[in-house]
């Protein structure tokens, strides 16, 4: 990328970063009722529409995702092809959500309208390439179509899953696994000034994901160390391959948390349950991401860091709106997304918790 | 063109769509209705059913490879019930076809595994490993031999290590790795089974009797298994053929029904309504209104109302333009469309484009021989070129006619007597002719532009827009001044006044439409005014290329003959052939590009907005795939 393009992108990211929520603003949002919140976010039409609560929640989620993807579209404009591909790959997660929804829908023989209502409406560059997928009428047909495209490996595994136990979990885990592996591979292809900050950024993301997956697979689903390790994606930062091999062998949650490398171990020092670990791991990622946004000189790393933080903010807003739409008591909503849950020193911690 | 608004009962929509499609004169207007009450979309369910039915038919036809077209018969109304029944029927047929497709996929998979198994055994043979030992599981050791996707190998290696096993990757083919996993038997076996399943591990069984059979016997076994698979494939193909023959009529009928249902689906975005009332808007050529009314009277069973009116001034940009249907002009029309579609009311530039294009091409590439080759080549390739063959033939004939004018045949200028003169005989006269041609072309283009703006009601644009009446006035003054300058040495009072007056008018007009600081306005107006002078001067001189290329053609021919004269008999023949080919391909191509450039830039930019849209009426697409 030329110096001029870097300058432009960096300026763009700096300008857009002013939209990010600080803890005070997040706290103020918590105090708002559903109508005021919807008004601030210009979502009154969705709230006032004659739709079911579920449909309203979906519409709100769709609107927030559209906001995020609009930011992606703005940021990729001055980028070179490799940078653009990385940001689009990151955003392609929403297309994979659609793929998972489709697979789940076919596995459980859901009505096509129900499936369609649960799909995100994505811009052309991020949509699943094949409309054929949407027109399939059963699992086997879906898998055949999938096998002809870039997800052929997934499709083959899906077929085994379908034939053996009709269990979508393994398939969804494989989709996530492949997605994050691709993201890391793309990151590691960068050279020069952008490589280090991108490694840190992706490392922070995968460190959080690996901690959560390890806890979930080992202690919630009761997976063996082998199976747990197989589902993980080694991080380019703290939780690399050798460390993961060691960690998955730990027998209890406490043992595993104590064996984490610093600064994760210190952060998890007195965490008692998975929910608390999730909050703290997310806070760690948010802190690292914010650091890259404020300190890095790489335009692409800052742009990706901004998008990650923006997504966290939007998820916080979504949690607030969802809570309101489902009629949850304000205390319950606040306890789920309290911006002071981790102390002011965390910066973006509260927002990360919502993510 | 008239705007029509058809109000009818919702249940008559399929009949109305058929009636409109049969006339082939109704271009749907997709604007939302002005009345908020008409916000329903009555055709939505119909469209959903149609899309699903067509998708099913497409998938069946892809597998069954059915290429026949349905027999037309009489057009019939396809209501939602009929479409729904068809959709259900196609759903059942697709279920059959889907099973067959799945069977084919299964066979492909078996073949793939068999090939991998052969490769694995061949590899083991090279390694001199006793497969019998691997096949006989011991009490203490556990073996797995098989395939995993290449990208899973590294993670699987770590995962099996945690279960106390070792992974050996002994062969890589395509995207797969052949692996052997060895470890102690025991309680961790179950852990491993789950990991292998997640990793997409595919076992490659070691054939029975592996230790007792010779290599030839094993090869014969594999051959037999391949033959068995081929036999199963042949049987499956026969099954598919039988299935297709059995359902051919049903599928053709389904295709026919979908063709008849398609018009209503196409209309869907234009249909709005409330309760049982539907409203449909569109554009219809004035001459076709009566025919449309008769067709609706004949088809619709329930009362309807058809309102017609002329388009309003604000609607003009939305009114579609009927394209040229002349067969001879069709290729020229295609080239015009590359620039844009004429706005409704604008003169269709295709005839003018065709005439001026041929004149310019002929003058720039005037040669009886080369023209004949172009015309002949276009005629011989008429099946490939289709409508563009006429274009090639016309260009060739034009080149031939100018070849007679210049007395040139394959660059030789002494075989034919010139009707006028060879270009190199008097280049100055040639340049003068080109200059006059350019001046006439620019004046004609500006005049057409002015007429087109008046035709679409843009009076101010006709007067003051770029290439409007004031610009034309400036050009006349500029030309008169130029003539005076060349003949008597002075620009002249009147031409000077006309030029200054018109430029001042344009500058004032521009000033009034600019916003911003005064300094910036002065700068922009000055540059734009100067640009007007430069543009007209350079555009006029741009036409000198018409003569320049005719001179170039003659000069290139002379160069080739000079080269040929320097060589022996064989060299002369080769040089002449290659030289003429060079002239035909390279110079012909360049001339074509130059003519297009003159047309698009000096012509179209003056008189043709190109921002209209084509009249695309609703039609029944019989004989085409739905």
From TrEMBL, chain A:
Coiled coil: none annotated. It holds the Pfam family vATP-synt_AC39. The keyword Cell division does not apply. Keywords: Ion transport, Transport. It comes from the Bacteria. GO terms for molecular function: proton-transporting ATPase activity, rotational mechanism. Belongs to the V-ATPase V0D/AC39 subunit family. PANTHER family: V-TYPE ATP SYNTHASE SUBUNIT C. This is Archaeal/vacuolar-type H+-ATPase subunit C. The lineage of its organism: Bacteria, Pseudomonadati, Pseudomonadota, Gammaproteobacteria, Chromatiales.
């Amino acid at each position: 990328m030329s110096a001029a393009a870097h300058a432009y992108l960096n300026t763009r990211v700096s300008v857009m970063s002013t939209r990010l929520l600080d803890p005070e603003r997040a706290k103020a949002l918590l105090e708002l009722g559903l109508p005021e919140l919807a008004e601030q976010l210009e979502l009154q039409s969705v709230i006032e529409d004659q739709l079911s609560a579920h449909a309203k929640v979906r519409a709100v989620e769709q609107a927030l995702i559209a906001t995020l993807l609009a930011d992606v579209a703005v940021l990729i404009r001055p980028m070179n092809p490799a940078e653009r591909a990385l940001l689009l790959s990151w955003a392609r997660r929403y297309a994979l959500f659609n793929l998972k929804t489709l697979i789940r829908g076919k596995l459980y023989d859901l009505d096509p309208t129900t499936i369609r209502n649960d799909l995100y409406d994505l811009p052309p560059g991020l949509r699943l390439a094949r409309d054929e997928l949407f027109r399939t009428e059963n699992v086997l047909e879906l898998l055949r179509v999938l096998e002809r495209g870039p997800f052929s490996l997934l499709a083959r595994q899906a077929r085994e899953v379908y034939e053996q136990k009709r269990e979508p979990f393994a398939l969804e885990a494989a989709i996530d696994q492949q997605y994050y592996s691709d993201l890391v591979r793309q990151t590691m292809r960068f050279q020069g000034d952008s490589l280090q900050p991108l490694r840190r950024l992706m490392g922070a993301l995968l460190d959080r994901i690996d901690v959560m997956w390890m806890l979930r697979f080992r202690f919630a689903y009761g997976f063996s160390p082998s199976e747990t390790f197989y589902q993980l994606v080694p991080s380019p930062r703290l939780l690399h391959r050798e460390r993961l091999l060691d960690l998955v062998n730990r027998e209890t949650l406490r043992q595993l948390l104590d064996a984490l490398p610093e600064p994760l171990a210190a952060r998890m020092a007195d965490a008692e349950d998975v929910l608390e670990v999730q909050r703290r791991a997310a806070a760690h990622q948010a802190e690292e991401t914010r650091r890259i946004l404020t300190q890095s000189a790489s335009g692409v790393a800052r742009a990706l860091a901004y998008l990650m933080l923006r997504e966290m903010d939007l998820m916080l807003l979504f949690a607030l709106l969802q809570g309101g739409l489902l009629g949850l008591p304000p205390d319950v909503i606040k306890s789920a997304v309290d911006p002071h849950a981790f102390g002011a020193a965390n910066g973006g911690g509260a927002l990360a918790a919502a993510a | 063109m008239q705007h029509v608004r058809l109000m009818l009962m919702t249940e008559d929509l399929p009949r109305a769509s058929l009636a409109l499609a049969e006339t082939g004169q109704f271009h749907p207007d997709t604007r939302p209705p002005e009345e908020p009450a008409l916000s329903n979309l009555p055709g939505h369910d119909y469209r959903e059913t149609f899309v699903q039915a067509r998708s099913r038919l497409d998938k069946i036809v892809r597998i069954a490879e059915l290429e026949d077209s349905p027999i037309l018969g009489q057009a019939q109304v396809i209501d939602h019930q009929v479409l729904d029944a068809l959709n259900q029927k196609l759903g059942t047929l697709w279920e059959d076809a889907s099973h067959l497709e799945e069977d084919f996929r299964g066979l492909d998979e078996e073949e793939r595994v068999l090939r991998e198994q052969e490769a694995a055994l061949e590899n083991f043979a090279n390694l001199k490993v006793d497969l019998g030992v691997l096949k006989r599981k011991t009490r203490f050791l556990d073996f797995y031999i098989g395939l995993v996707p290449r990208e899973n190998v590294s993670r699987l290696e770590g995962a099996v290590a945690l279960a106390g096993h070792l992974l050996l990757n002994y062969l890589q083919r395509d995207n797969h790795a052949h692996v052997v996993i060895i470890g102690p038997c025991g309680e961790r076996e179950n852990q491993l089974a789950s990991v292998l399943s997640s990793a997409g591990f595919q076992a490659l069984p070691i054939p029975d009797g592996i230790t007792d059979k010779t290599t030839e016997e094993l090869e014969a076994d594999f051959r037999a298994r391949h033959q068995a698979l081929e036999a199963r494939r042949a049987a499956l193909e026969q099954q598919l053929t039988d299935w297709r023959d059995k359902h051919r009529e049903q599928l053709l009928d389904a295709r026919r029904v979908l063709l008849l249902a398609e018009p209503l689906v196409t209309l869907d975005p234009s249909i709005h309504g409330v309760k049982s009332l539907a409203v449909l808007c569109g554009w219809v050529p004035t001459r076709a209104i009566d025919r449309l009314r008769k067709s609706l009277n004949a088809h619709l069973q329930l009362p309807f109302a058809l309102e017609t009116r002329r388009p309003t001034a604000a609607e003009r940009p939305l009114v579609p333009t009927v394209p040229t249907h002349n067969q001879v002009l069709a290729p020229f029309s295609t080239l015009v469309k590359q620039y844009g579609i004429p706005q409704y009311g604008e003169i269709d530039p295709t005839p003018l484009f065709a005439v001026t294009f041929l004149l310019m091409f002929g003058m720039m590439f005037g040669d009886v021989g080369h023209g004949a080759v172009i015309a002949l080549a276009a005629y011989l390739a008429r099946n490939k070129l289709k409508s563009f063959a006429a274009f090639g033939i016309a260009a060739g004939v034009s080149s031939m006619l100018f070849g007679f004018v210049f007395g040139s045949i394959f660059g030789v200028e002494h075989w034919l007597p010139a009707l006028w003169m060879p270009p190199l005989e008097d280049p100055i006269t040639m340049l003068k002719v080109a200059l006059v041609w350019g001046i006439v072309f620019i004046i004609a283009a500006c005049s057409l532009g002015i007429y087109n703006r008046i035709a679409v009601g843009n009076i101010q644009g006709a007067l003051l827009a770029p290439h409007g009446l004031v610009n034309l006035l400036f050009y006349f003054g500029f030309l008169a001044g130029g003539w005076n300058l060349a003949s008597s040495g002075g620009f002249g009072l009147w031409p000077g006044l006309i030029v200054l007056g018109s430029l001042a008018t344009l500058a004032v007009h521009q000033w009034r439409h600019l916003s911003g600081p005064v300094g910036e306005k002065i700068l922009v107006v000055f540059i734009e005014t100067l640009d007007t002078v430069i543009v007209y001067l350079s555009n006029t001189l741009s036409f000198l290329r018409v003569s320049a290329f005719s001179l170039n053609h003659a000069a290139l021919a002379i160069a080739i003959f000079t080269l040929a004269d320097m060589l022996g008999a064989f060299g002369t023949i080769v040089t002449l052939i290659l030289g003429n080919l060079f002239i035909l391909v390279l110079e012909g191509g360049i001339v074509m590009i130059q003519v297009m450039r003159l047309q698009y830039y000096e012509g179209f930019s003056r008189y043709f907005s190109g921002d209209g849209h084509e009249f695309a009426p609703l039609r029944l697409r019989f004989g085409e795939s739905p």
